[in-house]
Amino acid sequence: MKYLIFLLILSLSSNLSTNYQLSKKAFAIVEGEYEKSHIRGHVIFKQLNIFNLHVMVHITGIPSKLGPRLGFHVHKNGILNPLANTTVRCESAGPHYNPLNRPHGNISSWKRHVGDYGNMVVHNGTIKAQFVDRLTRLHRPFNIIGRTVVLHEREDDLGLGADKNSKINGNSGPPIACGMIGVWS
Ligand SMILES: [Zn+2]
């Protein structure tokens, strides 16, 4: 009997690991034009286990007049209008990814859009950050592959503002760069 239970647990755990190993890594090439600046970079995603996604962000060329903190989110769709200018191209990714229909918030809160990554710190025109998120994933539920990371012009108020937009987009302003998330391996 003990042996049967052991076999059952073994088969369940191997099923789980098979299901969750569809994609372990994903990436996005981030690009945008802001006035005369070319903003360029990449985001690398690694699924550490079923609940923890490691996110590494490296973006350069951010104009000195922006920052020091800029809103950064996963938006619902892929880039539907790839040949348009930065604003139209990035806005074609739609609103923040919000499958749980919650208000906008900070990455550290449970009361947030799944796609809410909060703010990225800009230093000398560069964002170099890494963090672990427990909601966005490279598998179901909350799979972000095929969706879009978007960097915004202003600081995200993390849903703490008094106006209606604070609960929708954190008043982080128009997009300045974005990139669609694709499978790496
Ligand atoms: Zn949001």
Automatic annotation (TrEMBL):
<protein>
    <submittedName>
        <fullName>Superoxide dismutase [Cu-Zn]</fullName>
    </submittedName>
</protein>
<feature type="signal peptide">
    <location>
        <begin position="1"/>
        <end position="19"/>
    </location>
</feature>
<keyword id="KW-0732">Signal</keyword>
<dbReference type="GO" id="GO:0006801">
    <property type="term" value="P:superoxide metabolic process"/>
</dbReference>
<dbReference type="InterPro" id="IPR036423">
    <property type="entry name" value="SOD-like_Cu/Zn_dom_sf"/>
</dbReference>
<feature type="domain" description="Superoxide dismutase copper/zinc binding">
    <location>
        <begin position="40"/>
        <end position="181"/>
    </location>
</feature>
<dbReference type="InterPro" id="IPR024134">
    <property type="entry name" value="SOD_Cu/Zn_/chaperone"/>
</dbReference>
<dbReference type="Pfam" id="PF00080">
    <property type="entry name" value="Sod_Cu"/>
</dbReference>
<dbReference type="InterPro" id="IPR001424">
    <property type="entry name" value="SOD_Cu_Zn_dom"/>
</dbReference>
<dbReference type="GO" id="GO:0005507">
    <property type="term" value="F:copper ion binding"/>
</dbReference>
